[in-house]
Amino acid sequence: MMASAVWIVLGTWSSGPVVAIGLALFLVATLVLLVRMVRGIGDGRWALDQLGELRGPSFDYIVWMAIGAPMVMVVLLVLLLVTGGLTTGR
User: CB-based contacts of 20: which residues, under 8 Å, 6+ apart?
Assistant: First the structure.
């Protein structure tokens, strides 16, 4: 998934650099949280998360993917609708 998102950023750079920068920032935030969660698994903190105690990096990643990322996408979609960025050019 991350590789395809990077491909999209590179593909949209020529037509819309502002959109590409916004998507790149979004991807960096997601990647940082994912790396933190994976490092937490490697440190042995994963056993606490399996007991249902969501905290630390796992909690941050789950909240970002469940609430933060969809909210960012909705705000960006509304911004594109308001500014006319979704017009087809007809």
Answer: 9, 10, 12, 13
What are the backbone angles phi and psi of residue 85, rounded to the nearest 5°?
-75, -10
Give 17-39 pLDDT, tens digit per residue: 777 888 888 888 888 988 888 88
User: Given its phi and psi angles, is residue 84 left (phi above 0), alpha (psi -120 to 50 degrees) or beta?
Assistant: left
Dihedral angle sign, alpha carbons of residues 8, 14, 17, 19? negative
Which of 79, 69, 76 lies closest to 31 in space, CA to CA?
69
d(CA 4, CA 21): 16
pTM of the full structure: 0.67
